[in-house]
Each structure stands twice: as structure tokens, then as C-alpha cells.
Amino acid sequence: MPDPQPPQGSPFLSPRQSRRDAEPDPEAQRRAIRTTRLFGLSLLLVVALTLLQPPWPVPVATAVLAGASVALGVVGLVRIRLHRVRGALTVAVLAGLLVAGFMAMATSAQVLLWREYQAYGECLESAITQQARDACQARLERSLEERMDQMMVDPARS
């Protein structure tokens, strides 16, 4: 009785089917894991730099690094799916991508609104009482609202 399945490498199989049936390449899997490891390290660096609240030029680099982390995460996710790396790595990379995306947006907003946050930090440094801290918070909220009004175009005024 003839074999109903065409032989491996047959012109009747699509490249996707033959790739799916082939054994995963261990070297390609190691490269995929290396990419995701680099993604994790870059994400940790972004989180650390954000928590440290460094002086002015560093948040720009942090925003760029956060964008690079998102790109590395996407590349890593594609590679681990393509080379069929098993385990919880896919879930971990997806969770890391969510964090990286949030950090990219947050650090970009911090760069855009740097003057307001710098004034807030200076205000907090001189604030001794809780009432003074509350006044700093209120001033920050007012300055952020004013800045957002400047950045947004009101269609009714146009």
C-alpha cells in the first residue's frame, strides 16, 4: 500500500509544513534565548534608571533604551516562536513586552514634561511639612494641565 504522506522535502509540502516537521535547531534556539536574555537585561536597566530618577540627559537615553527593549522583545518573541523554544519563556517575554511598552510610554512622557517634573522635584526638596508637599503636588497638577492644554489643539478654537 503506498504511503499517503509525500516524502520529506517533497515539492508537494509547503516550506512551512516541512519546517514544522523538522527538528528544532539547538544553535538557533540558543540564539533565540540569547536575544531574550538581552531583552531582559535591557528592561532591567530601563526600570533601574527610571527608579533612580537621574538628572536631565539620562531620561532621554532611558526613553531610547526603553524603545530598544521593545524592539528586542519583539525580535526575541519571534525567534523563540520560530525556533520552538519550550517552556514559559514565551509568557515571560510577553509580560516583559507589556512592561517595556509601559516604560517606553512613561519615560517618553517624562522627557516631554521634564520642566514640570524638575520643578516638582525642586519643590519637594524644600518642602518640610505635609502641607508643603500637598502644595507641590497641586502645583505639579496645575502645571501639567497647562502644558497639556498647550500641547493639545482645541478644534473649537481653530
From TrEMBL:
The chain crosses the membrane at residues 38-54, 60-80, 87-106. Residues 18-29 have a biased composition (Basic and acidic residues). Residues 1-29 are annotated as: Disordered. Keywords: Membrane, Transmembrane, Transmembrane helix. This is Cytochrome d ubiquinol oxidase subunit II.
